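User: I'm putting together notes for a lab meeting next week and I want to include a structural view of one of the chains we've been expressing. I don't have a solved structure, so I'd like a prediction I can at least talk through. The sequence is below, exactly as it appears in our construct file.
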Amino acid sequence: MRHRTRMLAAGVFLAPALAMIAVFTVVPFVQGILLSFQSWDGVSLDAPYVGLANYRFVLHDTEFWGSMKNAVVFGVVGLVVANAVSLVMALAVHRARRGAAFFRTVYYLPGVFSTVVVGVMFAWFLDPKIGVVNQALKATGLDGLQHNWLGDPETALIAVAVVFVWYHWGFGFILFLAGRQDVPQELYEAASLDGARGWAQFRYVTWPSMSHVTGIVSVLTLLSGLQIFGTVQVLTNGGPAGHTEVPTLDIYQQAFQFSEYGRAAAMSVIFGVCLIVLACVQLWVSRRLGGSTGSRAEKGS
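Assistant: Thanks for the context. Below is the predicted structure for the 301-residue chain, given as structure tokens.
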């Protein structure tokens, strides 16, 4: 009787949240899948069933798969570069004896801006004529390095990736810093008694102890890189000539510019399945690496 009462109370508290998830997540998800088998321009009352035509179009759309490659680039850059920068900054701030509060604020500051503000700000920084970057190169005598960073197909993707790293390193920095502060000092004292210093302490104490934080940050950063939208839209809008196109922007353009909602839904389904698979693989790899490093640490201790 008591157990039943607790279950009933839990159901009452969970009901509003479950209802919100059903209305704003499950129903649109199912509608999106159904729409991917229809042809709809967003206005007409009639949305004829077209079977797998939308999926056949997407599978043969070179622009969409090109955007998928760019998304993978952003995901890898976020996973490797942004996380490495975040981890180094977190370890440095944790060891800092002075100014730790100042550096915590400065390093996390990029994350408080909206993507639109970041995009507008860096579009001005990287402007080929009046941009701060080219002006700084000119002032230091490096005129030969001045460049149209966002307008050149060879540098546009790199420039946007750099902006993405700058914008997202604050998120990883805060989580890595919290994870480092949770590592017991006794482990470092024991490692010191065994003669471990510097890199050895990081490899056998810090890294295994922070494996759970690393796994969470890695998955969230990877998904953030793959789903990048606002930064690309404001900086380049997919240009030049589609060299910075990403799936989210392609889906947006198919739906709201070309009124091809069925194709956009098919793209969303394919892209969503790819994200789920990648997230599962990333979680599996993180757990395997965390488990193996943890086992080595236990054996070493």
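A couple of points you could mention at the meeting. The chain has a mean pLDDT of 87. The CA atoms of residues 85 and 274 lie 27 Å apart.

User: Perfect, that's what I needed.
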